[in-house]
């Protein structure tokens, strides 16, 4: 998902996956008999390692993760890896040299653990010595949990949190909150921590709305006697419980890798299998009817509000208001061939180049043109939340009747609701369902496809 500064180490975990798989396969070649050095076994140990890691959270190590939790993950990974290896070798190869398997699995886990711990401690020292990989935070509230968290941030710079300010909400709370919001925007704060003991539901909702609309991370500090009504994700900073408002599945590295891998494979199939022969045909038809380029390029907002060039087959005559006004029904700007490719959604196919390049995903919230994004961000509550994930060629909102022109406030409000549901409930099966429904609707024909 460009990332927000200091929010994720985007390339670190993919690098860890690759390094660990290299270690496993090299050791298998060196330590095991030639009878085992076959492609099937190397494929098995690689896939089984990833599947186990996914289930035990082996790569889910964050800046606030305790070392004892890292060792627990290592032990679980080691135990399951040995069991699966014995199961595979005993069933398929009738292998009877257990010492070799123990030696291979043990050396593999030891080397991988050393690499894992080295990276973990290196990042801690990197934050202290070079001041990098920091998140700028503020704490809102007044109480023992607030002072404990403030002390934790100040006394543990290796965790990578830079406490910029405290807001105690004494006196006029409305004025204090407005001051806090202005401060967060002015000083480019990454995360806000709120003490729930100092807030009523109305104030909590104000913070939720503010962070959603400005792409800030919001976390809560519950009192030990307080029961939360919301379904929240808990982490521990030292021994201090911290609750996150929104748990986004695509924030997990394994899910990011699965979705990105699917995007690359799917986009290549479309580019090679369809666009390679369809583009010359459409280029001839488009240019025969009207002068201008074959492709239409438009600036749109994507992940974390970053702008990118979104590509489509040109379906309209060149005009000066293409980046300002949405297409409407019976729009005179649309050409004859344009009407056909819009009705069948063929005009969207060049966006698979955007997917392959990493600006978009096959499935996700549909990106809006920059001028409309700025307008909706000011008028539609939680509109900015949809920018926590990559935009898609198709999305859950589009398969539920909210595609094309925004004719009323209801259209954009419901589109945002579906987008938020998608990013909070993502799964590969949901993506496949949306793709199927998109193809089905395109074949059936849609009322708003114009």
TrEMBL record:
Keywords for the protein's UniProt record, in alphabetical order: Membrane, Transferase, Transmembrane, Transmembrane helix
Gene Ontology MF: a single term: phosphotransferase activity, for other substituted phosphate groups
Subcellular location: Membrane
Pfam families: Bac_transf, CoA_binding_3
Keyword Nucleus in annotation: no
Domain Bacterial sugar transferase: 259-443
Bilayer topology: Multi-pass membrane protein
Superkingdom of origin organism: Bacteria
Transmembrane helix as UniProt keyword: yes
Ranges annotated as spanning the membrane: 12-33, 39-62, 74-92, 104-123, 264-286
Coiled-coil region list: none
GO CC terms, sorted: membrane
Signal sequence extent: none
Family to which this protein belongs: Belongs to the bacterial sugar transferase family.
Name the UniProt record assigns to this protein: Putative colanic acid biosynthesis UDP-glucose lipid carrier transferase
Organism: Flavobacterium cauense R2A-7
């Amino acid at each position: 998902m460009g990332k927000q500064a200091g929010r994720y180490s985007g390339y670190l975990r993919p690098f860890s996956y690759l390094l660990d798989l290299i270690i496993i396969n090299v050791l298998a070649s060196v330590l095991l008999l030639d009878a085992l050095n076959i492609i099937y076994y190397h494929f098995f140990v690689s896939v089984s390692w990833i599947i186990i890691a996914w289930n035990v959270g082996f790569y889910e190590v964050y800046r606030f993760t305790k070392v004892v939790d890292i060792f627990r993950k290592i032990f679980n990974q080691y135990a399951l890896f040995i069991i699966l290896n014995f199961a595979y070798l005993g069933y398929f190869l009738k292998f009877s040299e257990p010492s070799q398997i123990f030696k291979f699995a043990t050396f593999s886990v030891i080397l991988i653990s050393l690499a894992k711990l080295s990276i973990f401690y290196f990042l801690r020292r990197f934050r202290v010595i070079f001041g990098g990989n920091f998140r700028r935070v503020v704490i809102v509230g007044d109480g023992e949990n607030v002072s404990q968290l403030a002390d934790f941030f100040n006394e543990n710079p290796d965790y990578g949190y830079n406490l910029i300010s405290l807001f105690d909400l004494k006196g006029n709370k409305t004025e204090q909150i407005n001051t806090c919001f202005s401060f967060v925007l002015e000083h480019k704060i990454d995360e806000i921590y709120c003490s729930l003991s100092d807030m009523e539901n109305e104030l909590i909702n104000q913070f939720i709305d503010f962070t959603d609309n400005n792409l800030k991370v919001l976390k809560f500090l519950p009192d030990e006697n307080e029961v939360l009504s919301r379904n929240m994700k808990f982490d521990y900073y030292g021994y201090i419980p911290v609750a996150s408002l929104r748990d986004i599945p695509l924030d997990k590295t394994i899910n990011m890798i699965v979705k990105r891998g699917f995007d690359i494979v799917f986009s290549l199939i479309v580019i090679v299998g369809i666009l390679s022969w369809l583009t010359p045909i459409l280029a001839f038809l488009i240019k025969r009817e009207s002068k201008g380029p074959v492709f239409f390029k438009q600036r749109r907002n994507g992940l974390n509000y970053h702008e990118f060039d979104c590509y489509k087959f040109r379906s309209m005559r060149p005009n000066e208001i293409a980046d300002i006004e949405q297409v409407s029904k019976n729009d005179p700007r649309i050409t004859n061939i344009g009407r056909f490719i819009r009705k069948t959604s063929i005009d969207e196919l060049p966006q698979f180049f955007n997917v392959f390049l990493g600006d978009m995903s096959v499935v996700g919230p549909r990106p809006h043109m920059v001028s409309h994004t700025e307008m909706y961000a000011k008028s539609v509550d939680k509109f900015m939340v949809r920018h926590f994930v990559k935009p898609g060629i198709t999305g859950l909102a589009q398969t539920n009747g909210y595609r094309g022109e925004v004719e009323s406030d209801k259209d954009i409000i419901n589109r945002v609701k579906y987008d938020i549901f998608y990013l909070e409930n993502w799964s590969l099966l949901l993506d496949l369902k949306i793709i199927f429904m998109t193809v089905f609707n395109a074949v059936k024909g849609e009322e708003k496809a114009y």
